[in-house]
UniProtKB/TrEMBL annotation:
The keyword Ligase does not apply. The chain crosses the membrane at residues 51-72, 79-101, 113-132, 144-167, 195-221, 242-263, 301-321, 333-357, 377-394. Residues 432-446, 477-487, 506-517 have a biased composition (Low complexity). The keyword Glycoprotein does not apply. Coiled coil: none annotated. Keywords: Membrane, Transmembrane, Transmembrane helix. Residues 488-505 have a biased composition (Pro residues). Residues 404-417 have a biased composition (Basic and acidic residues). This is Uncharacterized protein. Residues 398-417, 424-544 are annotated as: Disordered.
Amino acid sequence: MHRLLIALLAALDAVLAAAGGIAVVLAPLALLWVFGIGDPDWGALWPASAAVWHLGHLVPVTITLPDAYLAATGIDPSFATFTLSLAPLAFAAFTGLFAARSGSRAAEAGSGLTGWLSGSLVFAALSAGIALTSQASLVTSETWLAILLPSLVFLVPSLIGAIAGAWRVGDDGPVDAVRGWIERMPSTWASVPGLALRGLAIATLGLVSVGAVVVLAGLIARASQVIGLYQASNADGVGATVIALGQLLYLPTLVLWAVSFAAGPGFALGTDTAVTPAATQVGALPGIPVLGAVPDSTSSWLLLLVLLPVAVGALTGWILRSRMPVTAGPEPLAPRLVLAVVVAVLTGGVGALAAVVSSGSIGPGRLADTGPQPGPLALTLGLEVLVGLAILLLSPRLGGDEGDERHEEPDERGFSYAAREHVPFDRDEHGTGPTPTGSPTGAGIPHDVWPSAYRDPDAVATDTGLGARGSALGAFSSPVPAVSAPPVSAPPASAPPASAPPASAPPVSESPAAGSSGELSDDEVRARIRAAWSEHGGEPDGTS
């Protein structure tokens, strides 16, 4: 694809990412301005929408309450100005996913660098435009932060997506150079970098899933408190809709809080407060309905939640172990140990980053400190995931540490018409069925294969029978010595008619060898059988 087209598509992705985030805020606020405010100030709609968008992209927003509002509500004038910095991470998640998709698509089209630069520059320009046009007396933010932080929220995921896309399809540049350097490493170490990144992704996804389950369980267990806070708000339909939408935008933030709660360190809901599985200490909380899911007290059973990150680590270790190359001998310990430590350290780093972006201020005074602490969360997540990884990565395989030895089994068919060393003698003598390929003269047959047409019906199935016929058959069940066939002469002119009784077969003289293979031909075997039947007064067709 042409580079100009790639740049244009990446720029379009940036425009859609910014416009989508703004529209999510602007639409409900416009409804609130129309139906919820008697005499709305339309000049404040855009600054309010931009402030929410900035807050969702990690930009702290300073709010200054007017004096008339302070007088009407009786709020202490010392609380007239405060900072909101707890981000509704749904905006950042939307922008990041959009950016990663854009970068990956540009790389797969053949020009990841062009797409990344184009999209990042366009999004930075849009962020600057929003920041410069949304300043107001009631809601303000630092202009340079309002430009830098949203740009980074787009730039970093776009770069990660571009690198991932180039890794999949190649870029004939630095990514391929790094891939070549990794592939030149020893076979036991070459898979470690890729498995480490895969393990980080699996562990991160697993921890987010754990947080989502904990949030859902809390909402179900304390549904009555959540509903009670909704009723206490006395909001009409429009107000309830805006409150519900705002809580949905904060849902990723709550999930990260739940991850910290399950890991053990918990989170704060104000200065000198803590919500952990071991103990809960909170004061007066804002009347936000979703905060009704925060437990008032704890139970010793909640301590079992710390096993969930360990289980995530074990699952990650099992997946990574199944993708590690199988060696011919015992698996070396060093690559597995390094892989476990690297994945645990990276997971701890992601935990610290999650704590940073999910903490901040939600109001004045004691509400200026909310969310998890980066250090404790990083340490506990890293250790818990490391324990789970070690269980599966450092233990022997279920089948032992021996390499898989797979042998190709020959294709042995049950029956074939191809030529073979021995051909069963009891084939269809009358040509009513398929005739297998015969052996050359002198190949002979096995001694234990006898024509069914020449068996005595009265003889038993064993090699030794009763009577003369059984004895004769038992004698011929032993290996036949090699004999030489007599010369075949032309039949005499006065041959007996077909109805005459058959004459006894001429005796067969023995010879030290018969043919090159030392075995009898089919005609020689038939002659010996007829001679044996003649000596005992029988016929080849079984009549005596």
